[in-house]
Design goal:
Blueprint: H1 9-15, H2 21-34, H3 38-44, H4 50-61, H5 81-84, H6 87-93, E1 95-101, E2 104-109, H7 115-125, E3 128-133, H8 136-147, H9 152-159, H10 184-191, H11 194-209, E4 212-219, E5 224-230, E6 233-237, H12 245-255, E7 267-275, E8 278-289, E9 292-301, H13 316-326, E10 331-336, H14 343-354, E11 361-365, E12 376-379, H15 388-395, E13 402-405, H16 411-422, E14 426-431, H17 437-446, H18 450-456, E15 457-469, E16 475-478, H19 481-487, E17 493-496, E18 508-519, H20 522-529, H21 534-543, H22 549-558, H23 564-571
Parallel strand pairs: 2-3, 10-14, 10-15, 11-12, 11-13, 13-14
Antiparallel strand pairs: 1-2, 4-5, 4-9, 5-6, 7-8, 8-9, 15-18, 16-17
Helix pairs in contact: 3-4, 7-11, 10-12, 11-12, 15-16, 16-18, 17-21, 18-20, 20-21, 22-23
Amino acid sequence: MTKEKYFKLGELLIKDGLINAVQLEKAVAVQRREGGRLGEILVKLGFIKEEQMVAAIGKQLNIPYFTLGTGMLKPAVDQDLERLIPEEFAIKNLILPLSRTLKSLTIAMYDPLDIILIDNLKRLTGCDINPVIATRADIMKAIEEFYGSRSSMLKEAVAGTYDSSHPSGEIAEEPSEIEEELSLDKLIARAEEAPVVKLVDLIIRQAIDERASDIHIEPFKDKMNLRYRIDGKLYEVPPPAKHLQLAIISRIKILAELDIAEKRLPQDGAFIVRVEDRTVDIRVSVIPTIYGEKVVLRLLDKGRVVLDLGQLGFDSKQLEQIRKIVAAPYGLVLLTGPTGSGKTTTLYAILSELKSPTKNILTIEDPVEVKLDGINQVQVKPEIGLTFATALRSFLRQDPDIMLVGEVRDLETAQICIRSALTGHLVLSTLHTNDAPSATTRIVDIGIEPYMLAPSLLMVVAQRLARVLCPDCKEAYELSPEEQKNLKLKTDLVYRPRGCPKCNNIGYKGRTCIAEVLVINEELRELITHRASYQKMKEVAKANGMQTLYESAMKKVEAGIISLEEAFSITLGGD
C-alpha cells in the first residue's frame, strides 16, 4: 500500500488556498510567543473559520470530518451509548459516541490527538476507539440533542464561559472535590484504578520522551497545571481533568512510598522506572498549597547523562587546563555556578576520567544523583548526623586518593576540604558563586584564612548551561552595523531559533556548557594571601588569559551553536 505524503497543517492550508504564507508566519510568531495550537491561533486571528480548520486537521490526520448539518453527528439508537459514555464525561471532554460495532466504538472528538483521553475512553468502554473530528459547536449541540437535558455544565459550555484551552480540560469545579470527605480506603482504591495508573505512566513516559528534567503537577481552584522543564525552561502541556487531582497525587505517593493520608506537611520520596533498556530514577517532592498538594518529580535519566568531559561543551583550551589540573596528586578544585548549571555532571565526568584500579575515590553527596562503578559514594543523612563534615572526617581514615564533596556549605566542611587538599589528597567540590574569581573571596568570607586557601586551591571553574539551537531549523540573520560594533563578533551572521517538529517547535534541542576556567598561579596566590578584592582578582585573571563566561558564550554565538538571546540571558549581557 502506498503511503500518502504527510503535510504539516500550515502547508496543507496554504496548499488548499485557505491562508497565505504571510498569515501563516504571523500565526507561527504568535504561537512562539504565547504557545497554543496553530489551528486555533489561525481561527482566533480571523484568517480561517473553525470549520475550515477542523476539516483541514481531519485531512491532515486522515480522519473523517463530520458535521451536524449532514446528520452524521446523530448517535445510533438501541446501543446503550448513553450508558457507555455518561453525559457528564461527554460534556467535560467534548466527545460524542456515535456507534458501536463489536469492540470498535466510533467517537466524535474536537481533539483526536488527545492520546490521554483516547486511552481513558478505551479503559472506560473496553472498546477500541475510532475517532472522527467535528467542530466544538457541532459537538456541543449534538450532545444536547442526544442526552436530552441541559445541565448547568452544558449551559456554561454553550455560553462559552468555561476554559476551552484544551478539550479534555475541566469545565466546572467538582462540588465533591473536598479532600477531607474521601476516606483513606477510597483514596487508595481510586489511585489504583487502571485509568489513573495509566495516566500517571503516560505523564512520566511523555516527560522522558521529551527529555524533561522535572514534572510539575500544580493544583489551582478550578484546574490543574502540568508543566515539563525541558533544557532548563518550563513548558505547559495539556493537563488532566481537575477531578483526577487526588487520585493522581495519591498514585505518585504510593509509588514513592509516601504517606497518602498526610496532606499538611511536605514529603520527599523516590522510585525507579524502567524505559526500554534504561533506568530512570525519579525523586518526588510534595508540598501543601491552598488548593491541594503540589508535586514535583525530578527525572534522573541515566541513559541521557553524558559523562564524557570532551562532550560537555568546554573548548579545547579549557579542556586542556582542566585535565592538566585534575591530574595533580593533591589540591582543591572548585566548580561554581547557580543550581542547575551542570556542576555535578562536570564533576562526575572528571571522576569518570580519573577513576582507576590504582586510585581510591570517595564521594559525599546530597543526594547521590548518578551511581558510578568503581567509586565509593556516600549519601548525606543529616537526621542521623551524617553530614558533609562528619563523613569527610571518616574519609580521611579510609586511605583516599581523591575525594568529592557535594557542596562547601559551612566553615567546618571548608576547613576539612582545605586540610585534606594540603595533606596529599585531591579534593573536588562545588560552591554557589556567580563567577570564578568571586569563589576565592567567598571561601575567605566563610571563615577560611587566606594563608591556608592560597597554597591549596588549584583551579576554579564557573559554568552555566545554554540551550543549543536546533540544527534542523535554526535560521541565520545579519547583525545591524550598530550591533556589530557593540558586540565585536568575528562574524556578520548569527543564528536564532525557529521551531520544527524535531524540537517540538521550541527552536532549541539540548544544552551545552559555557565556562570560565581560572587556574591559580603564583601571582593569584599572592593576591589571595593579601585578601585582594574581587575586582583585582578578575583583572589579573583576565590578564593571565582567562576567558570569561561572556566571552565563552560569544564564541558559541559565532559558531552558530547558541543564540544571542540565550548568551545574554545566562551571562547577564556582559563580562
